[in-house]
Amino acid sequence: MRARDLACDFPTVTVDTPVYDAARLLAEQDLPGLIVVDGRGLPVTILPGTQVLRLAVPGYCQDDPALARVVDEAHADRFLHALAGRTVREALPAQPRELPITAPDATVLELAALMARTHSPLVAVVSDGALLGAVTLQALLDRAVAA
């Protein structure tokens, strides 16, 4: 099985998309991440859902999880409100990583190696300068387990 066989249409965002909108898209479509594209629609990076959380969760709670316990439940439930007015650009890591993109003829093992190496839950499939879709970790594992 090749990347082209596992790829599906996948939503994209830009670096200027409000990150709260990206979080809503992740939640509504049960996605592991989003493809961030440039003005031509080509992938520039992958935004894993965990990066959205990193932006929304206060640094003191990330540094010392015990401090998260002192926040009352009503405020804790609304932690995503910290994303208001912020963009996807702010959720991206400061140091860009290897871009998880592949050609349509990549094998399942090549996809798995790329996901593992880049710590990405999805891989963008690009051919002839156009985004064809993405292969998610779930689709890859479903295929690998079935084999």
Which features does this protein show?
Diverse_CBS-Domain; 147 residues; CBS domain-containing protein; 41% helix; CBS-domain; CBS_dom; 3-stranded mixed beta sheet; CBS_dom_sf; CBS domain; 9 helices; alpha/beta
Total separate domains: 1
So what's the CATH class? Alpha Beta
Low-confidence spans: none
Shape: globular
Number of beta-strand segments: 6
**What oligomeric arrangement do these chains adopt?**
single chain
Q: Would you mind describing this structure in some detail?
A:
It is a single chain. The chain is of the alpha/beta class and 147 residues long. It has one domain: CBS-domain (Roll). Helices cover 41% and strands 19% of the residues. The protein contains nine helices and six strands, in the order αβαββαααααβαββα. The chain has helices spanning 3-6, 19-28, 49-56, 59-63, 65-68, 73-76, 88-91, 108-118, 137-146; strands at 12-13, 33-37, 43-48, 101-102, 122-127, 130-136. The strands form two sheets. A three-stranded mixed sheet has the order 1-2-3. A three-stranded mixed sheet has the order 4-5-6. The model has no long low-confidence stretch (mean pLDDT 89). Keywords: CBS domain. This is CBS domain-containing protein. Residues 1-65 form the CBS domain. Pfam families: CBS.
